[in-house]
Here is the input.
Amino acid sequence: MNNINRLTLEQEFKIALYINKINLLDKKGTKKYLIHILKKMMLKDNIIKYCIKNTSN
Here is the structure.
């Protein structure tokens, strides 16, 4: 149970990549990038919800 809230090594690496990319952007670019990432996260959530809904039937 303790490992549920921890990131994997791969996830930590992805975070480091995002931090590097964000640090290179200006304020406007950062906002656009954040919106882009949030949309991706929402799409991923929708896919997961769809899969869960359709596999339980």
